[in-house]
Write a structure and sequence with these properties.
This protein is α/β, with parallel strands linked by helices and about 550 residues long. α14 runs parallel beside α16. It comes from Phaseolus angularis.
């Protein structure tokens, strides 16, 4: 089978075995329905999905957009159709390297009847009248240029080649430069061909309109995704400032010792849940994540994607519950006073139970409607709440551990995107993220935003790991500034936030300069965050303090008397 990337294997399409399986049915166009199960191919520009659990870590990569047409070099085409004058579904296609160009706007194209060639592979002169029509034919049997030449000789105004799978690739031929083909040639997916075929065999009139709208260089969805990513890190870093009791509450706590005791108990419980990452744990984590990624590459299935969806919902529920309760109780202390006895949990706040019920309902609704066009809203809300909570519970003690973790993640990202194809013949990270064996289910551990001004639709995305890993360092910078009484200008937090934002800009700039080819986002984000910290530390003479912070009491606070 040819590669969907239009490799050298696509030069001549002589697939005798596959073609015989499709053409040999002997029922003309109806034999098109024979074949395997469709495999929807999704082109992620790899998103690093490492959270702090191994299951969420295995999908790595960079930020991206998703589209129906996967990794193609040809020009994307819109295939509008009308059935007995009633407008039908719009299909996607891709042009061949040979043939005429299509107009960019539908008003500049012509609505033309569609008819199947006979034979259906169009590898010889057609006995059906093709004059003034768009010829439909199935893939296989002969070169693409041979099909186009016979269709053109029959008077067809264009040709649609129906692939035998759900992916698309550019049709090329070794002698395409010599071919004298003046009609547009477009490939469409198997399911699109089946839809047109079903209408034709039922005796209905099918009309086709072809045009190739250009994809915008930049979509505004990137700006919204940038704001969500930077905003998540800023909110997570400042969250303790938002939710910690005010100093003015001390007198109130003296008058209400019961509530003060409850608040102190809650803070103690939260402190016990905090995980302080060390260098050894960072290395083991990345090695385990790599092992898990390889297992997913070989054994990925739809049921496992469902496991990830369930885990995402559980994490999202906990994160959303934590965010709502902590913010609400901070502003209204009376919310948490009324309690009820719950089996297995003991005395529990009624308000907390109500919020939990709301969060569970929200997550279940998202899971049930995750295929809808608006599902990205719920997914982003759950994901942001989850990441804010993770960044509260997981902490870097100093720059030494941050260097180990981020450098390991840096190498991890680059290896599984760029180097793994040498070993596994394809990018393991992109293959797993694409979900070829997942039955069309998308991986939920990422933020996404629809491409509003792109005629091809799709989403721009960024994985949780591309927010969490730099976010751990930014959160540490805020704690360091707060402990040492630093302001915005002489601290590290503001500069790291700026560095992270610039790193995201570089990520998308690299994405566009490389024509959408997958790239590891941490390739840009790590130098723009960890690099900024090290450079500032060297300039200010504080690198030793940052490197050993928390291990040497004499370095934990500023002791200069200047």
């Amino acid at each position: 089978m040819p590669s969907s990337r239009g490799s050298a294997g696509d030069v001549v399409d002589n697939e005798s075995a596959d073609s015989a399986a499709v053409v040999g049915g002997g029922n003309g166009a109806e034999s098109l329905l024979a074949g395997g199960v469709p495999n929807l191919s999704l082109d992620f520009l790899g998103v690093d999905l490492q959270a702090l659990s191994l299951e969420l870590d295995a999908y790595g990569g960079l930020g991206v957009h998703i589209e129906l047409v996967a990794s193609i070099a040809g020009k994307e085409v819109k295939v509008e159709n009308w059935i007995d004058g009633v407008e039908g579904r719009i299909y996607n296609g891709v042009t061949a390297r040979f043939g005429s160009l299509l107009p960019e706007k539908p008003e500049n194209s012509v609505r033309t009847p569609a008819i199947f060639s006979n034979p259906v592979d169009c590898c010889s002169n057609s006995t059906s009248k093709l004059s003034g029509s768009v010829a439909l034919c199935i893939r296989g049997g002969c070169d693409f240029t041979v099909k186009a030449e016979f269709a053109q000789a029959g008077g067809a105004t264009g040709m649609l080649v129906i692939n035998d799978a759900e992916d698309l690739f550019e049709m090329v031929c070794s002698n395409s430069s010599e071919a004298n083909i003046s009609i547009p040639v477009v490939m469409i997916t198997k399911s699109a061909g089946e839809g047109l075929n079903n209408s034709l065999i039922s005796g209905r009139k099918v009309e086709i309109l072809l045009y190739a709208p250009p994809r915008p260089l930049v979509d505004f969805s990137v700006a919204f995704l940038w704001l969500m990513s930077v905003g998540t890190i800023v909110c997570a870093s400042l969250w303790s400032d938002f939710t910690s009791p005010e100093k003015s509450d001390e007198r109130y706590n003296e008058l209400c010792p019961k509530e003060s005791s409850i608040a102190e108990t809650a803070r103690d419980d939260f402190d016990k849940e905090i995980v302080h990452i060390d260098s050894k744990g960072a290395i083991i984590f990345v090695i385990a994540a790599s092992t898990f990624l390889v297992l997913l590459f070989f054994f990925m299935s739809s049921w496992f994607v469902w496991v990830l969806i369930v885990l995402f919902c559980i994490g999202g529920i906990e994160g959303m519950h934590n965010c709502i309760v902590s913010l609400t109780v901070r502003k209204g202390r009376s919310c948490g006073q009324k309690t009820v006895s719950v089996p297995l949990f003991g005395e529990t706040s009624i308000f907390s139970l109500v919020v939990l019920l709301f969060c569970v309902t929200f997550a279940v609704f998202w899971a049930a409607t995750r295929q809808e066009s608006y599902s990205w809203i719920g997914q982003d809300i759950l994901g942001i709440c989850l990441m804010i909570t993770v960044l509260q519970l997981a902490r870097l003690p100093n720059i030494k551990v941050a260097t180990v973790l981020l450098c390991c993640a840096f190498v991890y990202d680059i290896f599984w995107v760029f180097i793994s194809p040498v070993i596994f013949h394809e990018s393991v990270m992109i293959a797993v993220a694409r979900g070829d064996k997942a039955g069309g289910e998308a991986i939920p551990m990422l933020l996404r935003f629809p491409r509003l001004f792109d005629p091809w639709g799709g989403y721009d995305m960024i994985g949780f790991g591309d927010i969490l890993f730099p976010g751990l360092l930014v959160s540490f910078a805020h704690r360091f500034d707060k402990d040492n009484g630093r302001g915005a200008s002489n601290g590290y937090f503001l500069w790291l936030v700026i560095g992270y934002g610039i790193g995201l800009v570089f990520t998308y700039l690299g994405l566009y300069l490389m024509n959408g080819n997958g790239q590891p986002a941490l390739l840009y984000l790590v130098p723009c965050t960890l690099g900024v910290t090290v450079i500032l530390g060297c300039i200010r003479g504080e690198l030793k303090n940052l490197w050993n912070y928390g291990t040497d009491p004499s370095l934990s606070t500023e002791h200069s008397e200047v």
